[in-house]
Amino acid sequence: MFCYLFRRSYIEGTAYKADPKSDQAKLKVKFYVPPFLPIIPVVGDYWVLFLDEEYQYALIGQPSRKYLWILCRQTHMDEEIYEMLVEKAKEVGYDVSKLRKTTQTDPPPEGEGPQDTKGIWWIKSIFGK
């Protein structure tokens, strides 16, 4: 198992249906490492376990049940909704005791994301900078 630790707020990937003939929300997501020299593809399985009707929050997991994410389009999620998603994850066999909430801040205005597009951040992260 490889573990990559980055000090960047995001990494880009490409998602596609695991089985194009299926209507299940099972995705494959491909990332390249290092991101500035796309030669080593890293592919992960991501299953959409629950998605609300308005696409405001989602429960995403991996088939191994080792990884689980609760995602929200807003910086705050009502506790009632969070608990409902945790229960849904329990019902399908995820160990929710490992879930950790992350403090969210308002995103920067459009166009004010990271300026480093050449991947220098990745090299610096190797050396802990």
TrEMBL record:
It comes from the Eukaryota. SUPFAM superfamilies: Lipocalins (SSF50814). Residues 8-104 form the Lipocalin/cytosolic fatty-acid binding domain. InterPro entries: Calycin, Lipocalin_Blc-like_dom, Lipocln_cytosolic_FA-bd_dom. GO terms for biological process: response to stress. Pfam families: Lipocalin_2 (PF08212). It comes from Vitis vinifera. This is Lipocalin/cytosolic fatty-acid binding domain-containing protein.
